Amino acid sequence: MTVGLRNIVFDSSKVNIGPRKSLCFAKELYGGYANVGATLCDFRNCDRDLKLYVGERYGQMMIDKFKVMQETCKSFYYAYEVDSTGHLTKLFWSDAVGRRNFEVYGDAVSFDATFDTNKYNMIFAPFTGVDKQDKCVTFAACLLSQESVTDYSWTFSHFVKAMGRNPVVIVTDQCAAMKVAIRDTFVAVNDLVASKHRLCMWHIMDKFPMKLGNRLCKETDFMEKMKTYIWSSNIEIDEFETGWGAIIKEFKLEENRWLSDMYAIRSCWIPPYFRNEPMFGLMRTTSRSESENFFFSQFHKQGDTLCEFWLRFQSTMDRQRNETVRLDNESNTSLPTTLSTWFIEDDAAELFTRAIFYKIQEEILASCYDMQIKRISEEVEGVTHLEIRDVKVKDKLFKVSVSRNHAVCSCKKFVMCGIVCRHAFCGLKQIGVTKFPRTLVLNRWMKIEESGTSSDSVSKTIKQLNTDLDNQCGDFVEFTKKDHMAAMLGKQPVGEVSILVPNICKNKGNYFKKKRLISEREKALTKSKKRIRKCKKCEAITHDSRTCPHKKAAQKEVMPVDKPAESGLNV
Known about the structure:
The chain is of the alpha+beta class and 571 residues long. It has helices at residues 3-14, 19-30, 33-36, 40-54, 58-72, 96-105, 149-163, 176-185, 201-206, 208-212, 214-218, 222-230, 237-250, 257-264, 287-297, 306-333, 343-351, 354-369, 413-417, 422-430, 455-473, 481-489, 520-529, 549-558, and strands at 77-82, 88-94, 108-111, 115-116, 123-130, 136-144, 169-172, 196-199, 371-376, 384-390, 397-402, 407-409. Strands 1, 2, 3, 4, 5, 6, 7 and 8 form an eight-stranded mixed sheet that branches. A four-stranded antiparallel sheet has the order 9-10-11-12. InterPro entries: MULE_transposase_dom, Znf_SWIM. One of its GO terms (molecular function) is zinc ion binding. Pfam families: MULE.
């Protein structure tokens, strides 16, 4: 195995490609198996040697790698804890790009701890947000051995320490430990503003059939009526409470304990209760985290060591950030097609990224075709008040106040999502505004570069270091196989290892079903999807044709009865 072939095996492992496919790739690269000079066994042995080189030292090696990264870049933040026996139990990290992204996109954060990616079943939990391309962006991540209040509180405290402030809103599932940790950690201290905790609507809605029964949820119009009030962000709090009460009374569910509990915490998951808070794409679900889990699952395997996990995590981040760079370049070098003759749409195409522009374009077109102005006031001190009816929203009038440089609507979409609503556009069009009001343009959606350290400067520094290294090295000096592994994985720790590998954990939330604790409902659903075996004789499902009682009865009927012979001999 040459240096080039070992690099192929190592680089392939970063993106979850095994030795067999690595050999196939090398064959295409070298022009045939004969030119590769190594067999599948050699590739597998190389993969084995890489793992043996790390051995049981990868807990210490990973922390040593983090120390080097922090020395190289002061913006890299990490923290860890070990138990009384020296085994790693908690690990948190955030690099310079993640911390810079939080400065711009960290108002709303989704946190999900249902994904394990390593042989010790430690929970991998990323902090996820939405960037200016409306894509998932990872701010930080952690590995936890337990899903306890103590572990979550430790993680959240280091998250605040790394980022310098609390998120405005954090969205999670109904984990009781998270709820307590968020309440105790994201608090108003040292001039920080306390975070608002919101629950995932999707997870709660998914429990309705399980808690109330399939007959009520699927064979009646109960869910359709309930969704009218649960999913709508255009209704007021009193409208929701009146509608919820009417539905509960209609279907006689006043005594249902689960629904009573969900109603008691309605301010944490029903949109009308947080219409005055920025959510920026995280308003209703933790689907951003679910999307991130699927994204990470393409790179990770259940049996990954911490060393393999870290290498693949870096590859995952490279892919995520490269996609952001591609979309940024697309937005900066071309303009999307406009569909109206209103100059404000052309202005929006110049200001916003392509993904956000398409959302704004939808609102602009709706303002032209779906709005009916019911009342308009005289202009007073530059402000005009309107009452507008949206033809797609029944029995609702939206109150809009507009001026030449601002607009406010009672639907409060701009407050929640940072995007001007169709009702406000209708009012701006009515008073003849042709330029996009800059007070309605958020920095997080614009094409301009984010604040903080530029990635270009980091790239230039790396290129300069590589140039200096090439100039100093002179002629190439061949190094041993062990030296090569040290260059790829890091040097082995010298002396006694103080940070041991984690103990095998068992947590309630794992992404892979073979490790996750499965509820009785899921077991029943899985069983119902299996093909039902029927008896070929009678079509019963309690037995097969070999043990069919009808078959045995038929055999008895045709079986001859032995009779004694006249000669007295047995026949």
